[in-house]
Design goal:
Blueprint (H helix, E strand, L loop, with lengths): L1 E7 L6 H12 L5 E7 L15 E4 L3 H9 L2 H10 L3 H17 L3 H7 L6 E10 L5 H10 E10 L10 H7 L5 E4 L2 H10 L7 E3 L6 H8 L12 E6 L8 H13 L4 E6 L5 H10 L6 E5 L5 H6 L2 E4 L8 H8 L4 E4 L4 H4 L7 E3 L3 H13 L1 H12 L10 H4 L2
Parallel strand pairs: 1-2, 1-4, 2-3, 4-5, 5-6, 6-7, 8-9, 8-11, 9-10, 11-12, 12-13
Helix pairs in contact: 3-4, 10-15
Amino acid sequence: MKKILFMVINMNVGGTEKALLNMVSAFPKDKFKITILMLEKHGDFLNYVPEGIRVEYVKGYKNIKPSIIEPLHSVALRHFKKGNLIKASIILLFYLSSKLMKEKSLYYRYILRELPVIQQEYDIAVAYAGPMDFISYYVTNKIKAKKRIQWIHFDVNKIGFNKFFASKIYIKFDKIFVVSEEGKERLLNKIPSLNKKTDVFSNVVSQELIEYQAEEDKGFRDTFDGIRILTVGRLSYEKGQDIAIQALTKLIHNGYKVKWYCIGEGNSRVNYEKLIRDRNVSDNFKLLGSTPNPYPYIKDCDIYVQPSRHEGYCITLAEARCLNKPIITTDFTGAKEQIKNGVTGLIVNCDANEIYKAIVNLINDPVLRNELTRNLAGENINTNNEVKKIVNM
């Protein structure tokens, strides 16, 4: 039996975590023993880890977490205030060296010096978590494996991608998977030397499972009889819910009977709540919070809108496609790989007025809405076969 380890930060409800759960469910259980290694025991998706998947945690991470997530100068200042002058001086030296070398490998080595190497050897170890250099470093230095895979779920032009660190660490991986063709192209533009080991691995989506889960519960529970618009995603700047609030304001001002619902939680909630109040759209823009099963809401909505500023491969967009919803999406990385503009959805610039005009177009043209739905119904969206790319390794 082959042993594969996937390393992540936690199991918060999010697209990366959902993609991982979908993928490990697709592995042949009689041939692979899967372990998910997490930095911290946290997240609503913990209850959705498939049976037979082993879950482990990095021992001692809680003690070093502040030193990992805080800026180095803040870590040094914290130790100075506590009277730990020697430690503070050491951290300050690492801060200066990281500025000079433009990456933190030496600092990670220092932080991890007392954490043991995991003794279990794996056939494949995967740094899966996305834009967190620490996990890439941990997989290459603290996990024994015959082969290693680095996964990139994000747009390297948008999120804080450190090409100096990547050039040094990614060379130690046997394969680098990027979740879209456009994302791969952008990575190789930054680090051309990775060309031979880089490939596209689309996020795994099971249409049958999504359709089944869409029937498990009721979606919207209000009695609203107008047009329901839905967005699913973490409440954060890159997901663009503030743009959605601006677009809704214009819809309401121009007399359209609509409600916009957002499923997801995140650190921008307070800002968005204030923007909703300031725009006087509290009755029409609803933050529903997080749920591990958004599919009943997707099934019940009239229009699905993805207003993201940037994505790697938007799994919520794929899920809306599985349920044949009329879709409007901004033109982020990978959008054109999922949507044929004017055929299976509408792709617009990341702009509130552009989104507004696209929504008005769909509201006023039910024939177009039906055509988009019909075209999506004819597509095969299942990507379970992607796991063969790992199996073949």
